Amino acid sequence: MPIDKVKATPRLGWQSLRGHPTALIALAVFLLIVLLCLLGPLFASQSFADGDLSIGATPPSANHWFGTDTLGRDLWVRTLYGGRISIAVGFAASLVALGVGLLYGMIAGYAGGRLDAWMMRFVDVLYALPFIIIVILLTVILGRSLLLLFIAIGLVEWLTMARIVRGEVRRLKQQAFVEAARACGAKVPRIFLRHLLPNLLAPVIVYTTLTIPAVMLLESVLSFLGLGVQPPMSSWGSLIKEGAERLDVYPWMLLFPALFFATTLLTLNFLGDALRDILDPRGNDGA
């Protein structure tokens, strides 16, 4: 019988999360932002691409809560649509990074020896390359569609996940329950799925939660450079770019997208820290 099961069940994790008021507030704020981005545009009178050139850029008012941009487009609607893109990129690219890093790290950690050494040297080489340059090259080579943007960012964010998983697998494969499974003739896929993966959930969940804001930040940098989503679509990064170019004249064009973006990153970081405290008690021992 396995003697080293997952450190925290979902129920225990939720009960512990209730003891973190800051994390609960962060979760509530994040869910509110997600609901606004999903449902808010449905009740708007215009889409993110519709504008009125006759009014141009106008400050916040009763008709346009966040004001309008230079093309007369409602900034409230564009900010919420941009949130859909930024949050979707954050979660989708993080799932790509999770899948690649989890599989790569499990293989390297379980195999050990020369294969492990070669696989981790490959990771070291990729670490030495500037991430932003790799993403730019992938975006230019693969194209600028939204799906390819998910893949391009995910393919450079898996490295740390692979290292974390590899270290955990190297520790777990020395445990008695893994040795017993091997002695009973269990195949490697069964050992991965039944014995290693359940014990990897805690560190994987924690790091994935912390990866999402990092991915969103990277997407905003790409959009700021003009390599992210293409007009008339927008993300928070592209809206911040447009606002930064006109900050001295139309400050509201930067203020509201930046406020939503910063608040989302802050809430996700609070949640990640709380989950790390709950699911990885060893992190508290060394603090």
The DSSP helix count reads: 12
Report the CATH superfamily.
Answer: MetI-like
Radius of gyration: 22 Å
Give the second-level CATH assignment, the architecture. Answer: Orthogonal Bundle
Question: Could you characterize the architecture of this molecule?
Answer:
This protein has 287 residues and is an all-alpha fold. It has one domain (10-285): MetI-like fold. It has 12 helices and no strands. It has helices at 10-17, 21-39, 75-111, 113-128, 131-142, 146-154, 159-172, 176-183, 188-224, 236-245, 252-279, 281-285. The radius of gyration is 22 Å and the shape is elongated.
Task: Fill in the keyword field for this structure.
MetI-like fold; disordered C terminus; disordered N terminus; mainly alpha; 287 residues; 0% strand
Compact overview of the structure:
The chain is an all-alpha fold and 287 residues long. The protein is 71% helix and 0% strand. The protein has one domain (10-285): Orthogonal Bundle (MetI-like fold).
